[in-house]
Amino acid sequence: MTAHRRSPSLTERLDVSYDGIHRAADLIKRGGVVAFGTETVYGLGALSTSRHAVARVFAVKGRPSFNPLINHFSSKERAFEEAVLDGPLGTLAQQLADHFWPGPLTLVLPRHPKSRICDTASAALPSVALRVPRGRAVQQLLALIDAPVAAPSANRSGRISPSTAAHVVEGLDGLIDAVLNTGSCAVGVESTVLDLTGDKPVILRHGGVTQDALEEICGPLSSPAPQPSSSSRPTAPGQLSSHYAPSLPVRLDVTSPRPEEAYLCLGNADQHVDSQQLIWNLSPSGDLAEAAARLFSGLHFLDHEGTRRGLKAIAASPIPAQGIGLALRDRLQRAAAPRSVTEENASDG
Ligand code: AMP
Ligand code: MG
Predict the structure, then answer these.
(1) Per-residue pLDDT tens digits for 191-213
(2) Does ligand 1 have an atom closer than 6 angstroms to the CB of 150?
(3) Best of 70, 71, 227 to mutate for ligand 1, by most ligand atoms within 8 A of CB?
(4) Is residue 223 in some structural domain?
(5) How far is the CA of 93 from the CAs of 21, 71, 194, 221, 309, in angstroms?
(6) Pair 286, 267: CB distance under 8 Å
(7) What residue numbers bound the domain in which 32 lies?
(8) Pocket flag, ligand 1, residue 210 (CB < 6 Å)
(9) 8 Å CB contact between 295 and 328
(10) Is 162 in the same domain as 297?
(11) Per residue in 263-316, pLDDT tens?
């Protein structure tokens, strides 16, 4: 089967029964590409040890080959077989794993000389990105596979990430072998990526584990400098500005949406707008964890329904820059970023 040509009906729908999880594991072990839910978003899973399987993931997503993938494991012990854990940052990696795994934290570490992760998955970098995700089904699946599983978000590169199996099917039906329906994702935004390969830890991407929670263990942390918007190849992978993009343009920090806009809002912001306005409230009580869990569903919904109604844009209300709000703001800023041709092609997936 050609990886990136649609073949309707060839994507199996699996549920989280014994049979469903075993079938998903079997397909991945044989080099297939299977989407499954984690606590963050749906991932597009393939054996990190197979150049062929990983190449299919890049092709299906339209992801640039220089953008490395996160490798998923059922346990910390399995994950750390792939890395060198020397010195103070090695000790810190152990502490962070003990504290946050299974969970939405990815650690970037120097690659072990005997790592089985293929160069295609790690974009030939001397480092590897490792994570142990949370969730009963994904844990069972990874334990059955018992090998590193690369799993970038199960969407076309640069588009809105999927937080339900329906989102995956909408974008990738016929392009992948199966989708394991594990329900909607509890955290709803991608993992926090922490680089432990330099002199000190650096946050490469805000995500499901907050900076405050990390700093309790690591001390003060810095984020990388933002990439210039014209960059086609970022110095830190995953830092391109245009990403998570709906087809409608996105306008940020809006308290009074225009009639021709759909409104993505938080708290009681929707009480002051016209009853005709198309609205998705991320969390009526202003709870940022609930807002994160509902972000990608909201963007999917407003994009579809707004397009159907002939609206011109999605307006997003201001999000506080605290806790997981940093991850939400990051995703919205990238959804709103200008989309040059270069970036459309070079977005991370
Ligand atoms: P995604 O697969 O879309 O969730 O994105 C994975 C994120 O992890 C991207 O931001 C990647 O660039 C980042 N990543 C993966 N491997 C590495 C690595 N070896 N060094 C730095 N960042 C990495
Ligand atoms: Mg992604």
Answers:
(1) 999 999 999 999 999 999 999 99
(2) no
(3) 70
(4) no
(5) 30, 15, 10, 14, 49
(6) yes
(7) 4-218
(8) no
(9) yes
(10) no
(11) 999 999 888 788 899 999 999 999 999 999 999 999 999 999 999 999 999 999
